[in-house]
Prior knowledge:
The complex is a heterodimer. Chain A is of the alpha/beta class. Chain A has 2 domains: 5-11 and 258-391, Alpha-Beta Complex (Aspartate Aminotransferase, domain 1); 17-254, Aspartate Aminotransferase, domain 2 (3-Layer(aba) Sandwich), CATH 3.40.640.10. Chain A has helices at residues 17-23, 25-28, 39-59, 72-86, 102-113, 131-137, 160-169, 241-279, 306-315, 325-328, 335-339, 344-347, 361-380, 383-391; strands at 5-6, 66-69, 93-97, 117-121, 142-146, 173-177, 196-200, 211-215, 283-285, 296-301, 318-319, 350-354. In chain A, the strands form 3 sheets. A 7-stranded mixed β-sheet of chain A has the order 2-8-7-6-5-3-4, sandwiched between helices. In chain A, strands 9-10-12 form a 3-stranded antiparallel β-sheet. A two-stranded parallel ribbon of chain A has the order 1-11. In chain A, helix 4 runs parallel beside helix 5. Chain B is of the alpha+beta class. Chain B has one domain (4-123): Sufe protein. Chain: A, CATH 3.90.1010.10. Chain B is built from 6 helices and 3 strands; from the N terminus they run αβββααααα. Chain B: It holds the Pfam family NifU_N.
Amino acid sequence: MKKLIYLDNAATTQVSKEVVDEMLPYFTEEYGNASSVYEFGSKNKGAIEKAREVIGKALGSKANEIYFTAGGSESDNWAIKATADAYKEKGNHIITSKIEHHAVLHTCEYLEEQGFEVTYLDVDENGIIKLEELKKAIRPTTILISIMFANNEIGTIEPMKEIGELANQNNILFHTDAVQAFGQVPINVDEYHIDMLSASAHKLNGPKGIGFLYIRTGVKIRSYVHGGAQERKRRAGTENVPGIVGMSKAVEIAVSTIEERAKKETELRDYLINRVLKEVPYTRLNGHRTKRLPNNVNFSFQFVEGESLLIMLDMEGICGSSGSACTSGSLDPSHVLLAIGLPHEIAHGSLRLSLSEQTSKEDIDFVIETIKKIVEKLRNMSPLYEDYIKNNN
Amino acid sequence: MYSEKVMDHFQNPRNAGELENANGVGTVGNAKCGDIMRIYFDIDDDQIIKDVRFKTFGCGAAVATSSMATELVKGKTIYEALEVTNKAVMEALDGLPPVKVHCSLLAEEAIHAALWDYAEKKGIVIEGLEKPKNDIHEEEEEEEY
């Protein structure tokens, strides 16, 4: 079989062996319900609380500020909808950005239908929100600022500290979707004045279907799932113990290896970026050159359409993703690429490659050579390229 | 997601490229939507499509439908080519996913646009051929984005 080169780690990651080993006993041996009275079940509470400690420590927060959820989307929904509900007496205005994940954007759109007002901040050509615009957008009725820590498509890291300080000075809650950043870059909730933070285990070699929402003590937030008394009555439902334990292990490993991974991935990332920009003409890098996640690369190849590119890469065993309309099922390409000012036709030709610790230089060399061949083949077939060459010769 | 035939035509497109001596060229689609097809015809004095080429900017289905469309019209008269519908293109490819049906429509329209261009150049009227509406320049004027 052809070698698989998996460069879609921003979509999901491989669960690490250590994580699986940690989880397995909780399926068949320690399967008791943590809420039960008998020792066999209730001892699982210990495993859950230990996980809370580990994650709290990773964020510089208290353990009891961590609430387990089913993942990033649920955490985003909870943070935004429940804040809106709990603070609606204070105001009805929310500030977010145009490049948020759909879990944030569609939740905000839903709240607009319920009578809330939402400001969607513009970003600059690198995908960084404009702090001046944020300042201007703040109203006496603003109850929440929700800005992602790092963008999932273009990897740009937002100025968290400045945003947090602005929110704090104006007595506005600050939520961040850190699904892509958590485990990739160090995060301290106090340093950045973060009041709520969403994260997901499967982006950091943990299992799917488990995540958490950090909620700072003192933040009024309504229960999101009503039912039993789990998660301090704020999120009902029998705890996903294997998931929680697995996430805890994944976080532990991610935090302890964060520096060496970042160093290794950043080197490979920059090697990939530099060679492709040099060796493939009419190509641009999307996202900030340095303020970006260590494992994220996002190119636009002019005159080429993204889905075609992905299928051809797939035939060579390379997994990537694209912001092209054809991959999203709509007519419009990625909202993030449009927000950084790319024309539609260039946004259609985007390719995101997200590296992992396992990615080798040999993999990257093969990927670069393959990209060169495929882009040339597709351009030779592209009427846009033909027109461009004719008009410029 | 795609049938074997679609994958085959995407990987090994038939008649891809440009035709220097084309006497009918049609371009349809819109780069904003991520699909542009251009078809080149070399039509002889007996109104037979002697040669055909295509160039496409678009997804796998767009490339495959262009490729199949060129196969279906090659060697045919212009009136036979006019009968090649998007349905025929889709059937020849063993079907397309529902979200990709518009690619086959684009292929049909590209054939019509190339025939229209030929008819205009020759100063003839091809009965049953309407001016293709999905012309790239008309589309641009709409500006609905």
